[in-house]
Automatic annotation (TrEMBL), chain A:
It comes from the Bacteria. The keyword Protein biosynthesis does not apply. This is Putative selenium metabolism protein, YedE family. Keywords: Membrane, Transmembrane, Transmembrane helix. The chain crosses the membrane at residues 56-75, 87-107, 119-139, 155-175, 195-213, 234-256, 271-292, 304-325, 345-365.
TrEMBL record, chain B:
Residues 3-69 form the UPF0033 domain. The lineage of its organism: Bacteria, Bacillati, Bacillota, Clostridia, Eubacteriales. SUPFAM superfamilies: SirA-like (SSF64307). This is TusA-like domain.
């Protein structure tokens, strides 16, 4: 194995270890990092949706964008660019979030869930692999969203990082804009949104992951895509590294628990675990990167990727406002009935519609 | 010499477009691109296919290489 492969494998190991450490320090179980869940929490903190259990301005997201920006500036790779099917990417970002919230996690959380012993995440992985495979099918037939243009001004590329610096300011200040309504800002008092690692540790973890992911080009959909497309295992090693790093730390901290039932913030409706991540895999492959990669690219001045991130945040609001997001399974407790979990009928419809719309985009955007 | 222009294309299109020309049996290919990621990916592909790589220009966001077999 050459040097670059060792580097991305070590990067994966480190990210897996950091993720589980964040859980130890307060983040929700099997959710040291989840790009989709954390963007959803940000949407909630801003009052874009009112699901009380998932509202927090996650410093990890801010850290990843700023870490990637600083790294790309030092590497001379920061470049303001955009203009490739912007609205289409926005809509695709929305559906990528819908798929993630039907499953309950982005591809990164899928790996972390598997490393925690959650078998439902293995079903999700299968869906993800098939989704990426479907995306590759369109790529082989000439799918292309079009070329981006480099901007004559670098300022556009700084807008996304600046928005997240402003969110950091809001988080530190904690302003309640409408006290009568209790917010925004909203911060969960119970549920996953209330489970948080110390702010500056989360921010530092994000900065470090932003740096590592920018340097290694880590991308979870890319790992499977490159293996299917050209039998290249470079990015896949990052994927495997995250799994192994998180697995070792989960066992070390006593978090590992194998099975389908009783998994944290998860459900066992297999078909929807499969189809949710199928939608994410397909969309991510057509977009050129998974939710993590889109965040990193947003930090590098790619305004198309920033549009995907904004689409995902709006998509999260739609998921909770229109009851598309899956419910987590919960055992019965004193005076509370058990919840089977999974997406309701609207979420199921949205997921299937999303797959159809992505297929239409995949087919109609062929060059030849 | 065959020419491939991968400027402004997102992953993995630079690799797909270069591979298409390689699969047609071209022995001399000139590739121009605009990101370091695409440069890394295209050179990796070319090396795995047994091409020698001559870097004509590498200015971070503007590069040009020649592949020969």
């Amino acid at each position: 194995m050459d040097k670059s492969k060792w580097l991305i494998l070590s990067t994966g190991l480190l990210i897996g270890a950091i993720a589980v450490t964040l859980v130890k320090l307060g983040n929700p179980p099997n959710m040291g990092f989840c790009i989709a869940c954390f963007e959803r929490d940000i949407a909630g903190a801003l009052g874009l949706h009112r699901a009380a259990a998932v509202q927090y301005i996650r410093p990890e997201i801010i850290g990843i964008i700023l870490g990637a920006m600083l790294t790309s500036l030092f590497a001379g790779e920061f470049k303001s660019r955009g203009g490739s099917a912007t609205l289409v990417r926005f809509i695709m970002g929305m559906f990528m979030m819908i798929g993630a919230l039907v499953f309950l996690g982005c591809p990164l959380r899928d790996v972390l869930r598997m490393a925690g012993g959650d078998y439902n995440a293995v079903v999700g992985l299968l869906g993800f692999v098939f989704g990426v495979g479907a995306g590759v099918w369109f790529l082989r037939r000439g799918f292309n969203l079009g070329r981006t243009q480099e901007s004559h001004s670098q300022f556009g590329g700084y807008i996304m990082p600046l928005v997240f610096v402003f969110l950091l300011f809001l988080l530190l200040k904690g302003t309640v804009f409408n006290p009568d309504a209790g917010g925004p800002l909203f911060f969960s008092k119970e549920g996953p949104g209330s489970m948080v690692a110390p702010l500056f540790i989360s921010l530092a973890a994000g900065l470090l992951v932003g740096f590592l992911a920018q340097r290694t080009r880590l991308c979870l959909s890319g790992g499977i895509r490159d293996f299917i497309l050209i039998r290249d295992s470079y990015l896949l090693l990052g994927f495997i590294g995250i799994f192994l790093g998180a697995l070792v730390f989960n066992i070390g901290f006593g978090f590992f628990k194998a099975g389908f039932a009783g998994q944290p913030i998860a459900h066992s409706m297999h078909i929807w675990n499969f189809l949710g991540l199928f939608l994410v895999g397909l969309t991510a492959t057509l977009l050129g990167g998974c939710p993590l990669r889109q965040l990193v690219l947003s930090g590098e001045g790619d305004t198309d990727a920033a549009t995907v991130v904004v689409g995902m945040i709006v998509g999260a609001a739609i998921c909770h406002n229109f009851m598309l997001a899956a419910a987590a399974a919960k055992p019965a407790a004193a005076g509370v009935a058990a919840v089977a979990g999974g997406p309701g009928i609207y979420g199921q419809i949205a997921c299937v519609v999303g797959i159809i719309i992505m297929a239409v985009i995949g087919w109609t955007f062929r060059e030849e | 010499m065959e020419k491939v222009d991968v400027r402004g294309l997102s992953c993995p299109l630079p690799v797909i477009k270069t591979k298409k020309i390689i699969d047609q049996g071209a022995t001399e290919i000139s590739v121009v691109g605009s990101t370091q990621v695409s440069l890394e990916n295209v050179t990796k592909l070319a090396r795995s296919k047994g091409y020698s790589i001559d870097i004509k220009k590498d200015q971070k966001n503007d590069w040009e290489i020649e592949l020969k077999k």
